[in-house]
Write a structure and sequence with these properties.
By secondary structure, the protein is of the alpha/beta class. It has 21 helices and 20 strands. The strands form four sheets. Strands 3-2-4-5-7-6 form a six-stranded parallel β-sheet, sandwiched between helices. Strands 11-10-9-12-13-14 form a six-stranded parallel β-sheet, with helices on both faces. Strands 16-15-17-18-20-19 form a six-stranded parallel β-sheet, sandwiched between helices. β2, α2 and β3 form a beta-alpha-beta unit.
Length: 564
């Protein structure tokens, strides 16, 4: 016991997390966090704390967890270095509109300015990287500030929040009557904003008069659960539906209206043509950023734009916009489908035919490469093998580099919803291993894969110990080609093949993973690929397959520009 007869700030933090239905916390111990850890150890709260090997991966785990559960992810770390290490995961989640709460303990407020070890202006550090952030300097305000963090995370456009938790606040008294939570803020999106009726009617008018409209969906429809409403709108018009990389899962890619990914990462000429030839483009939960639009060239400037987004600052940021609908994606699309149903003689936009032609063109280029017995193994062959052995409900978490464009272009997701996760906001290497672990904790009944290049492996391999300790049956796949491939491909495409400081020695990734206790294989022969992948995926425990693969600068990667 702490020896107090009152609720301390550390205990209040545990009770507030419990009140918000938090079941898992990912984090790493530190001396400024001792009262909080002691409260977690002593109290009955139903929260599992998963000790990670660094704070960056704690944040990535919270991110993956939030994406598959519809609940905010929670991560924590100590002051000083812990606060700086957790930053990459916080900014990635925030820019991806994923709600995570980062709690970083801090030196006592009474020590500030006296040069205590690990002193840092945490609110200033996190301010540009979060949707909302505060330091809990006054223990009496702690419960209200935790409620504010959950309110900020889950309402409007979701995002990341941060709370600094000073050492003396953790020991100070908190009024037990203040321990309560608003049930609406235990999941996201909460308090959805509905669309303006006039804007919905204006959008319906434009779509009803279109000759070749296309929807381009970002992450918004997946975050808001809008896939059914999106499908209804598309079906009413026979309108093709394209997605960004983050928007995969807005519609099943086996759906006859699904065009697949567009943009410079994962898009191909056949999908780009559909967007270029459209007279109307409807962006849904999509920022229309550099990758999606091929640096704002596709669609062109003369295309009529309808833009649906929960963030008013996104709409009109990059394109003159005919109709702006600032609303939750699901509510906006439901209203739009009702408005279209009320109209007579809706156009047939040829979406099924356009999507079919695009996939046929894509497959014509893909199939011979996927069937190739070349060595090093072609990434296309890995995609085909995985589509053969993975269940429809599997989750794949892909790092940047080799995995992202190949999964985006060629892995055909058979179900709508969150089955593919990749970090498209800042693209830091080393994301997928932690995010896959968070996704597994959030959705343990399905198979989860972490797919990375060998560059990413070097960023993340310490967390294999965490995976083994918690007996997570995740399969990791490494594209091993001993190069930072994306950069080398950029040097080839734009800098006269002047290769500089991008190559490194090949690691025996299977041996490294095995040393952590992961059952591992190395595959060099494409004929062994399907058999080994099946064994790895069916094994009841952590596994890794190290695939000696073709590097990006030599491959037929579905990337139109290496610098977006």
């Amino acid at each position: 016991m702490t020896g107090t007869n009152y609720l301390t700030g550390a205990e209040a933090m545990v009770r507030m997390l419990e009140a918000h239905d938090v079941k898992h916390i990912f984090g790493l111990c530190g001396d400024t966090t001792l009262p909080f850890y002691d409260a977690l150890a002593r109290m009955d709260h139903g929260i599992q704390h998963i000790l990670t090997r660094d704070e960056r991966h704690a944040a990535y785990m919270a991110d993956g967890y939030a994406r598959v559960t519809g609940k905010p992810g929670v991560c924590e770390g100590p002051s000083g270095g812990g606060a700086t290490y957790i930053l990459p995961g916080v900014v990635e989640a925030n820019e991806s509109s994923v709600p995570i709460l980062a709690i970083t303990s801090d030196v006592a407020t009474t020590s500030r300015g006296k040069y205590p070890l690990t002193e840092l202006d945490q609110p200033a550090l996190f301010r540009p990287l979060t949707k909302w952030n505060a330091s809990l300097d006054d223990a009496s305000r702690l419960p209200a500030m935790v409620r504010a963090a959950f309110r900020a995370m889950t309402t409007g456009t979701p995002g990341a929040t941060h709370l600094a938790l000073p050492f003396d606040t953790q020991k100070a008294q908190v009024d037990e009557a203040e321990i309560w939570a608003d049930a609406r803020h235990r999941s996201y999106p909460a308090e959805r904003a509905g669309p303006d009726r006039d804007q919905i009617e204006a959008a319906a008018d434009i779509l009803a008069g279109a000759k070749s409209a296309v929807a381009v969906c970002g992450g918004g429809p997946v975050l808001s659960g809008a896939s059914d409403a999106l499908r209804r709108v598309a079906a009413l018009l026979d309108m093709p539906v394209a997605t960004t990389v983050s928007g995969q899962g807005s519609i099943a890619e086996t759906d006859p209206l699904a065009l697949g990914v567009v943009g410079s990462n994962g898009g191909v000429p056949a999908t780009r043509d559909v967007v270029d030839q459209a007279d109307v483009v409807m962006f849904v939960g999509c920022r229309a950023g550099s990758v999606t639009t091929e640096r704002w060239r596709s669609p062109g400037r003369k295309t009529k734009i309808i833009h649906i987004d929960s963030d008013p600052m996104v709409i009109g940021a990059n394109y003159p916009t005919e109709v702006a609908i600032c609303a939750d994606a699901r509510l906006a699309l439901e209203a739009l489908s009702r408005a279209l149903q009320a109209r007579q003689n809706l156009p047939g936009l040829g979406g099924v035919a356009k999507a079919h032609a695009a996939w046929e063109a894509k497959m014509a280029a893909f199939a011979p490469l996927a069937a190739s017995r070349d060595t090093p193994i072609r990434p296309e062959a890995v995609m085909t093998a995985l589509m053969d052995v993975l269940d429809d409900d599997a989750i794949v978490v892909a790092d940047p580099g080799t995995p992202c464009p190949y999964f985006s272009a060629h892995y055909r997701w058979p179900k709508a919803g969150r089955h593919f996760i990749t970090n498209r906001a800042h693209g830091a290497l080393g994301y997928s291993l932690g995010a896959a672990m968070g996704a597994h904790v959030g959705r343990p009944s399905v198979k989860t894969l972490s797919v990375m290049g060998d560059g990413s492996f070097g960023f993340a391999c310490g967390e294999f110990e965490t995976m083994v300790r918690h007996k997570m049956p995740i399969t990791s796949i490494v594209f091993s080609n001993s190069v930072f491939g994306w950069i080398k491909a950029g040097q080839k495409a734009g800098f006269g093949e002047r290769y500089y400081n991008v190559d490194f020695n090949r690691t025996d990734h299977a041996a490294v993973a095995a040393a952590f206790g992961v059952k591992s294989w190395t595959v060099k022969d494409p004929d062994d690929l399907s058999k080994v992948l099946r064994q790895a995926i069916e094994h009841d425990g952590p596994t890794l397959v190290d695939i000696h693969s073709q590097p990006l600068h030599e491959a037929a990667a579905p990337v139109s520009e290496w610098v977006a």
